[in-house]
């Protein structure tokens, strides 16, 4: 996880932006398929105002002669067990630059023997608040300003194992007090988020196997996944 994101424009995405008091909802980059290194919309809170900001989905950037490019170090996801490790890519961002990624769903890939299977997870009657990190970059020659981001990943969720056995996304509870604390740049007390770094899906999902992400040809019937998160309470 998580190599694809889904930003379908629907009532639940619009309602979530309203509930979170996003100041510029019309700047949301809607798309059924976004992959690492693409630009996506993240939610940041600056001076008490929550705004969507376009960010490159790859946390580490390298400076080239006339711009930026994604680092050779894979960084579209940040593992939960690296967040508190000094010197890791996400250490400072976890303390100071947390964001939320609003999404309708995500995609997972599972290799079985010599074959590869692709699955789309679409939230049912809801939209997702994914926990993310961001960094800001300023080019010394051109003056370009860029924002980059990553999605935090947790251990695999038991109910997802048949679809993806390596990790699961950090899906934040849509509790206003928790989201306030998560988006508060001045809040460096990350110990309060330790319970979030356990696998929890928090929503029902329609799971659809697809032939490949770019074409979205369905394979078989979709399955309704009702996760059992009670063992994490």
TrEMBL record:
Gene3D superfamilies under this entry? SOS response associated peptidase-like (3.90.1680.10)
Ligase is among the record's keywords: no
Main enzyme class: hydrolase
GO terms classed as biological process: protein-DNA covalent cross-linking repair; proteolysis
One Gene Ontology molecular-function label: peptidase activity
Keywords, ordered alphabetically: Covalent protein-DNA linkage, DNA damage, DNA-binding, Hydrolase, Lyase, Protease
Q: What is its EC number?
A: 3.4.-.-
* A Pfam short name: SRAP
Where in the sequence is the signal peptide annotated? none
InterPro entries the UniProt entry points to: SRAP, SRAP-like
Task: State the similarity comment.
Answer: Belongs to the SOS response-associated peptidase family.
Q: What is this protein called?
A: Abasic site processing protein
